[in-house]
Amino acid sequence: MAEPVRITFLGGLGDIGRNCAVLESDNRMVILDCGQMFSDETQPGVESIIPDFRYLIENADRIEGCIVTHAHEDHIGGLTYLLEAIPGLQLDFYGTPFTLGLVRHKLGERNLQGRANLHTIADGDRRTIGPFDCEFLPVTHSTPSGLITAFTTPQGIILHSSDFKLDHTPVDGRLTDLPRIGALSGDPGIRLLLCDSTNANSPGQSTSESEVGPVLRSIFHEHRNKRIIVGAFASHIHRVQQIADIAVEQDRTIVTLGRSMKRNVAMARDLGLLSIPDRHIVDIADSEDLDPAKTCIISTGSQGEPRSALTLMAAGDSRWVTIGPQDTVIFSSHPIPGNEAAVGRTRSGLARQGATIVHSGQIDVHTTGHGKQQELLALHAVANPDLFVPVHGEYEHLIGHAELAIRRGMSPDKVVVATDGDQLLLTDEGISKDGQVSGEYIYMDGSAQALTEGVLDERLLLGQAGFVSVIAEIDFETREIVFGPIVESRGWASPSERFDLQSGAASEARKALEDELEKSGDVRDMERVSRRAVGRYVAAATRRRPVIVPVIKSYSPSNHS
Known about the structure:
Helices cover 31% and strands 27% of the residues. The protein is α/β, with parallel strands linked by helices and 561 residues long.
């Protein structure tokens, strides 16, 4: 009987983001990606949402390394948090030069370079990582140099698709390596397929990235007498290449705006992944005297991120760019689910200042980096796996992908739909769920400490209804109120009504405290009754439910000497 293989999913199954899985055999572990998810408007103050690393922390001595399949934040954004969560861990990372370049930058931002060993992978390379022989194949996606990983394990080959599409005319000419997958399928065979499910419910085939270029070219031509600003993902080097090519054709000078855009463009040029003539690109600090009609700004902020370059322009707060009727702004991306409102506000802000707005809802200035149903079926046909687990997607995407595989002919007992925290065991008999670890969201606000759900709930409540504080000082020996109660509030009442409402709330608090003082109440009792009295008054007077914060101090003569 062959050694079993355990697969633990810490994130990425049931949501878009936090992709992180752990493969285990012979008591050793290999991590596959370690991503983050960005917060939305229901998570105020949260900078990043990461997997719960408790399982890795408890088994840190068994970790052999981490494969990073590509450079998107939902696959690499959690790496620094992982290293900080396991202070003594020295971790080997495996990835392509562009991916590792972004990993290196992240490590440097947190002074963690000394904790990581970076191993560069080329297409077709094979590496032994812990108990697994790993073969790395090229895959087409919306960022350069993504990798499919074929793990040779005691239970046969586990093929992880990474984020993929089947683009037959990619901008960089780097095709998803279907011939090698087909060869592996024939000999020795693919035991288990873990495959991207993002577009499992989208019929047809995705549009080639190279088809976006002609659409952009027509927009540039139509607006040839204007300054053109293009918002795009900083990691989408293939898109940046097409934008740059068109700008050069029109003899425009290219300016990058946003720290990540500037950094990624420079790194991609250094690695030979992006070709822009030196005479056609300048730093934003040197762009003031450029002819607007001969300028192309490639900017971050297409998702309406707070403080991003496009968002600052929309608010009129950009240090470098003042928007006006001379500008055409192209949003060369789709809004990520959850970002629609922020993107809409950014577009509206730019339009109010006179800019012409072009976006993917009007014309095809973007295409997905994830394969649709026909591409998924093609990969299944080539890989012909014995077993299948859909990964990377919302739960409805996982279900849709599972149903697609079953319709293609896989037996339902060969398909397992897992979610975050599930552990699967691959044995001679097949694959099954075999345990559960935490798949919880961990909320980070920039500090080293995670936020609890309770803190987030309080932040939401404060943002929605404000707070009211009740302050009083009581001599518990004489059973008298010696100070207050006074009521202060923020975000609850408008300035014109605040005084009367606060006075009314203070009166109710005094009555409640005096009644309680006739009994044997202590500080906690006083906090309880004042909170209830003010809460009832607030609800009756305003029909609002702010956070009530009682502050009751015990009087001591020494405090007033």
